């Protein structure tokens, strides 16, 4: 795992104060209760192509704000975002909330934790 710069970590920490998070370990039981839960992978296209959670939609951090309204116009739609480790998903979730989305979650641990807990493609 690459080291993150102090400024990036500070940006994520500040955004994290506004974003709801869920531990990766809690996701399997949540999915068992809500199998149609919307998982959004905000990693880069090459990361998604190398492996992702079964059923996850790819909307990289670079385009999610541009495309989210066309895909999910209802701002109350529950959206669960993940990235590699839980940093980029916090930033993306924060931006979606600024756009008026009210039920956005960032998955702590991201892909590194989720790939050992849930089916992948």
Automatic annotation (TrEMBL):
PROSITE patterns: RHODANESE_3 (PS50206). The keyword Lyase does not apply. Transmembrane segments: none annotated. Signal peptide: none annotated. Pfam families: Rhodanese (PF00581). Residues 33-119 form the Rhodanese domain. One of its GO terms (molecular function) is thiosulfate-cyanide sulfurtransferase activity. The keyword Transferase applies. SUPFAM superfamilies: Rhodanese/Cell cycle control phosphatase. Keywords: Transferase. This is Rhodanese-related sulfurtransferase.
């Amino acid at each position: 795992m690459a080291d993150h710069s102090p400024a990036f970590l500070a940006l994520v920490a500040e955004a994290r104060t506004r974003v709801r998070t869920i531990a990766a370990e809690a996701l399997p039981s949540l999915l068992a209760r809500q199998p149609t839960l919307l998982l959004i992978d905000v990693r880069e296209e090459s990361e998604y192509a190398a492996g992702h959670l079964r059923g996850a939609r790819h909307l990289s951090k670079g385009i999610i704000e541009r495309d989210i309204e066309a895909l999910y116009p209802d701002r109350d739609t529950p959206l669960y975002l993940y990235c590699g480790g839980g940093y980029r998903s916090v930033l993306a979730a924060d931006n979606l909330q600024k756009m008026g989305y009210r039920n956005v979650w960032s998955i702590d641990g991201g892909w590194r934790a989720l790939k050992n807990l849930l089916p992948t493609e």
